[in-house]
Write a structure and sequence with these properties.
Chain lengths: ~450, ~625
């Protein structure tokens, strides 16, 4: 225990004491400045007094106390100090100091334990016992304990956190992913457990003793070949399984694309806009240069497909019908992520990306299944995009076909009255043919 | 074997060779060109940066655990970034970004490779110093400047870079999108360029030293695995870092000159920007072309150091030395063709995604081989649990548990809903963060006597290990489950989504674990800095190791060996060889002195040597049999 030599316990105590005097002096002097401290409110004083000794509690308590105290006690201080200075309650410093002191005390305890160990080792040495190998045994047993505790911990996490985290997928391809996830989990758990039994088990079993000599065993080509080939085979199976699943998800045939309901989702800091194609099933083109306060997406109304496009207040999807989402971004990268659907695709400015999937469970069914009648599927942003990244969401509802149609009929058009007028003006300026104008009158 | 016995006689010549200059404080401690001093500089700078980054992580962990509590003390330290004792959302992202950047680049690339490549390459190869000591010094000072620039970004009005350590544009290119993309981002980019220069200078030096300056007898196949690992790391770095320069320079152009390499069709907060024709995905390709090799740059030195330590402290040769080298070579090569696994859902052509999945899962094979070889090395060893050995075992554990989750995220289909969630955070903290940090700490405990001529305190080392090992698992293991549930990373608070609320209590647990493990590092810092002055004096070869560095004197001298450089006769792993009276045979011992333990395999087909050995055995066999009777 070399370090004991240079942590003189006395020095530590004196240091701690002097720091404590210094700090508390400062903290209290601030309070003293506010001469009103004693007379002000008994509540402030007593709460400060209570909070200080019972300080090991989470700072939560003190945070709750703080505002009250600051109003009562620190108000006069604020009058003295210039406005721009931080107005921090002295209690905060005292608490900080007590935490530091607590840590110091722990260090002292550690140092004391270290000293005891040293004495113990010295007596062992004096009694002719070894002072080195007993420590190795201690670690060996500790590894054994960690192995058992660790395996139990893994089991516990799977059982508690695992069930808390796991909800079966609500889409067709998601079910395939889930199977693959579970197969991978089984394989991985077996390997994790076996290798850790070997690692900690060997550490326990082959701990050094003064008499044994290690077994000189530099290599064995057969074994090495086996443990190259076995992982290779297992991985090949996983790779093929994964590759074909991935292709089936991402490589959608032209025909299936046509049959799907196309919707567009556009990300911007920090909201999503959902666009439904309207009766024609087609989404109109956009040109970012046309963006204006009225036309937030920069929809190009020269493309008539856009005239009946509808603004979705949320993402509502008919169950068991393939959906193709066209994902774009107005400003920076976002990511379109619906965990329950096993769907994620980045929203990239200047580039359209797509994800096609088929929801298989309605929101109602999901609620019944989970027994949680407020449960909703949710789409969130998974790519860092700024201060509001953590709250960029859109509700996703999966409903029956009829409910879907009913909902859709209520959604407003992008091509609003104002936009139409604006567009007409620009059209007339370009003296376009009249037919268009007529069509326009009956648009959407 | 002449080095120790004839040291006195040769020392005079040696000093003649190297000039007898008197070193001033500046040339000895500051602008030193001595590889040992530079190693110490890298290490201490790395440790300081690690503490800094750790404090940042504790700050954002506080926010995650108690998203609606106030910590007025934070306002004292952070001022406007924590008004009213609440960390501000953009500053939260800045903390995460700088934490990641410092940990990956400054601690685990420069702090780890920089320290141990500088210390061990000349020592273990039997060289007097690096090929170019001056470049070596420059490498450190570029690194140091990069650190200063990075930290200085905390003192600018608009705050440090906050676009994540991957700095994806457009977020990192448009100051309007996030305030950290103003001056803070410029400083980040400057710092990175300086850092890369440092890496290139260092890497060139490591490679040329290893290729040219090995002592007599030190063939490639007699090099310790540490050297192999550091060699391949330097090569990987030299090929990949320049690509990051390209990425960074183009980003600087987009930011300051108005080019559109990465930008197109942007309407930021209602304002139409003039960029056209660029692609954010291009940046991601360039970034990850470095970024993926980077994780192996971080990991391979740790693998090398632990191979050495595990072998030494199991008193056994490393199992499958050749397989270990070939798997390192395999990992290095494959690491260049897997970068796309970071981009499965970024809009990259999905077929390409499939190809990257295949290459990614192939890289798991050499990694698995390494794990099995580690386990076989422990098997039937005589394991001494020095603190270094404990950290090495911990490293193997993290390498396994983190590597296994790689099978999920490397699989493009599974990655769809794991990408950018806490599952990723858990995965890379185990396999890259914890494994490499443990490799580094293992190296520090093991080579401390060589660095400072003193021993670190073992008991504090034990305390440090157990706190950190258990703490790291408690911090990162639960994060997997949040990721499976779909909680994205870089989220400021889990309060806005009903399904995340159940994880807040888990976050409290994680944060407490992180605080305790973080405080556990004080045991290390105390031990490390205290032992420099007060540690027990080290002996020349405290661990009974075979490699050359333990034949140098404890006191550092310029040129490392007082006399001639020792000649190498054997591989570095002759531990517990049957027939030898000790359980280790240093590389400098010729076979002629160990007749009783030589194996046919040792002579590599040298017939003359085999004949001598046979004759010796004929002459000695009966005798030994008699003895045993
Ligand atoms: C004190 C121990 C550590 C703790 C508690 C910690 C915690 C975290 C957490 C929770 C995040 C994710 C934040 C988020 O996405 O919202 C994070 C990010 C990160 N950490 Fe750590 N970490 C620690 C040590 C390390 C180490 C040793 C490394 C070295 C590789 C590291 C590298 C990173 C990286 C690269 C990121 C990603 C930054 C980004 O998203 O831009 N961390 N850390
Ligand atoms: Cu977003
Ligand atoms: Cu990678």
């Amino acid at each position: 225990m070399g370090f004991i030599k240079y942590i003189n316990l006395k020095t530590v105590f004196i240091l701690a004491l002097s720091i404590s005097m210094g700090l508390s002096g400062r903290a209290f002097s601030q309070e003293a400045d506010t001469a009103a401290r004693v007379t002000d409110t008994t509540a402030a004083v007593s709460s400060a007094g209570d909070a200080a000794p019972a300080d090991t509690a989470a700072s939560a308590d003190t945070a709750a106390v703080a505002p009250a105290v600051s109003k009562a006690a620190a108000a006069p201080a604020a009058a003295v100090e210039p406005e721009s200075k931080l107005n921090i309650d002295p209690q905060v410093y005292t608490n900080f100091f007590y935490y530091t002191l607590l840590f110091f005390l722990i260090c002292v305890v550690v140092a004391v334990i270290g000293r005891i160990l040293k004495v113990y080792e010295l007596t062992r040495k004096m009694n002719g016992l070894d002072a080195e190998y007993y420590m190795y045994s201690f670690h060996a047993y500790f590894f054994l304990v960690s192995l058992i505790a660790g395996l139990y911990g893994v089991y516990w996490s799977y059982a508690h956190h695992g069930t808390q985290a796991w909800r079966a997928a609500a889409t067709e391809h998601g079910a395939q992913i889930d199977i693959m996830f579970l197969v991978t989990t089984v394989i991985i758990t077996i390997v994790l457990v076996l290798t850790h039994i070997a690692l900690f088990g060997f550490a326990f079993k082959y701990r050094a003793t003064p008499t044994r000599k290690a077994y000189f065993y530099p290599h064995n080509n057969t074994i090495e070949k086996i443990w190259t080939i076995v992982p290779a085979v297992v991985l090949t199976i996983l790779v093929l399984f994964g590759f074909f699943t991935w292709r089936s998800i991402t490589n959608v045939s032209e025909e299936d694309q046509q049959n799907a309901l196309l919707i567009e989702v556009t990300g911007e800091q920090f909201a999503w806009t959902v666009r439904y194609p309207g009766r024609d099933g087609k989404i109109g083109e956009r040109n970012y240069k046309l963006t204006s306060p009225l036309n937030g997406l920069g929809i190009d109304f020269n493309d008539k497909n856009s005239w009946d496009d509808q603004l979705g207040s949320e993402i509502v999807l008919p169950v068991n019908k393939p959906v193709r989402v066209q994902i774009t971004s107005k400003d920076i990268l976002h990511s379109f992520f619906i965990p329950d659907f096993r769907v994620q695709m980045n929203a990239v400015p200047g580039m359209k990306t797509y994800f096609q999937f088929t929801p298989t469970i309605t929101t109602e069914e999901m609620r019944d299944k989970l027994g949680d009648y407020n449960y909703d599927f949710v789409m969130l942003c998974a790519k860092i995009c700024g201060g509001g990244h953590y709250n960029m969401q859109k509700r996703v509802r999966v409903v029956t076909e009829e409910e879907y149609q009913a909902w859709l009929n209520e959604q407003p058009y992008f091509f609003t009255e104002e936009l139409r007028k604006e567009f007409q003006v620009s059209q007339q300026a370009e003296s376009e043919n009249e037919q268009d104008a007529k069509l326009l009158a009956t648009a959407n | 074997m002449s080095n120790i016995t004839s040291a006195g006689a040769h020392s005079v010549d040696h000093h003649g060779d190297h000039g007898h200059h008197h070193e001033s404080f500046w040339t000895k401690y500051v602008f030193s060109q001595d590889h040992k001093m530079i190693a110490k500089q890298f290490l201490i700078t790395g440790i300081i940066m690690a503490v800094f980054a750790m404090i940042l992580s504790i700050l954002f962990r506080l926010q995650l655990a108690w998203p609606d509590k106030e910590f007025p003390i934070l306002e004292v330290f952070l001022g406007k970034w924590a008004e009213g004792g609440r960390i501000n959302p953009e500053f939260f992202l800045a903390l995460v970004t700088i934490h990641g950047t410092i940990m990956v680049f400054f601690v685990l690339t420069a702090g780890l490779s920089g320290t141990f490549a500088n210390l061990l390459i000349p020592y273990q190869l039997g060289a007097r110093d690096m090929a170019s000591p001056f470049m070596n010094m420059l490498s450190y000072w570029f690194f140091f400047t990069a650190c200063v620039v990075m930290i200085s970004s905390f003192f600018v009005e608009s705050g440090p870079a906050s676009a994540g350590w991957t700095v994806y544009p457009p977020l990192s290119a448009i100051p309007k999108a996030i305030s950290g993309s103003g001056l803070g981002m410029s400083l980040w980019l400057t710092s990175m360029v300086l850092f890369i220069i440092s890496q290139i200078l260092g890497g060139t030096n490591y490679i040329s030293t290893i290729l040219n300056m090995r002592t007599k007898g030190m063939s490639f196949w007699k090099m310790p695995l540490t050297i192999w690992a550091l060699f391949l790391t330097a090569i990987v770095g030299l090929f990949s870092f320049p690509v990051l320069v390209a990425a960074v320079v183009l980003l600087i152009f987009d930011r300051s000159v108005g080019t559109s390499f990465y930008l197109s069709d942007l309407v930021v907060q209602g304002q139409i920007l003039p960029y056209e024709g660029g692609s954010p995905v291009l940046f991601q390709h360039l970034f990850w072309f470095l970024g993926h090799p980077e994780v192996y740059i971080v990991l391979m030195p740790a693998l090398g150091l632990t191979s050495e330590v595990i072998s030494t402290n199991s008193r056994k040769p490393i199992f499958g030395y050749h397989a270990m080298v070939y798997s390192l070579i395999g990992i290095s090569t494959l690491s260049f063709i897997v970068w796309g696994h970071h981009m499965f859902v970024t809009g990259m052509n999905p077929f390409l995604g499939g190809v990257f999945m295949i290459t990614t899962l192939i890289i798991a094979v050499p990694s698995a081989v390494k794990v099995f070889n580690y386990l076989a090395t422990l098997w039937r060893g005589n394991i001494r649990f020095t603190p270094a050995m404990l950290f090495a075992i911990g490293m193997v554990s993290f390498f396994i548990s983190g590597g296994l989750t790689g099978l999920y995220v490397g699989n493009s289909a599974l990655d769809i809903n794991l990408h950018d969630t806490y599952f990723i955070v858990a995965h890379f903290h185990l396999v890259m963060g914890s494994a490499s940090i443990f490799g580094m700490l293992c190296g520090v405990y093991h080579w401390y006597p060589k660095l400072f001529g003193r021993m670190m305190d073992e008991k504090l080392g034990y305390l440090h290990f157990w706190l950190t090992f258990i703490g790291a698992y408690m911090v990162f293991f639960p994060m997997h489950f949040m990721g499976i549930d779909g909680v994205p990373r870089r989220y400021y608070a889990f309060t806005e989504f009903p399904f995340m609320e159940k994880w807040i209590s888990v976050n409290v647990f994680i944060t407490w674990s992180a605080i305790i493990a973080g405080l556990g590092q004080v045991a290390f810092l105390w031990n490390f800095f205290g032992s420099i002055r007060f540690g027990k004096r080290a002996t020349q070869n405290p661990w009974g190791a075979n490699t050359l560095e333990w034949t140098t004197p404890v006191e550092h001298i310029h040129g490392n060996w007082p006399g001639e450089i020792p000649t190498v006769h054997r591989w570095p792993y002759d531990y517990s060889k049957p027939g030898h009276h000790e359980d280790f045979i240093p590389q400098t011992v010729p076979f002629s002195e160990t007749m009783s333990s030589n194996l046919p395999h040792d002579f590599e087909g040298d017939q003359e040597a085999e004949r001598i050995q046979r004759e010796w055995e004929l002459a000695n066999k009966p005798q030994t049999e008699k003895e045993t009777e």
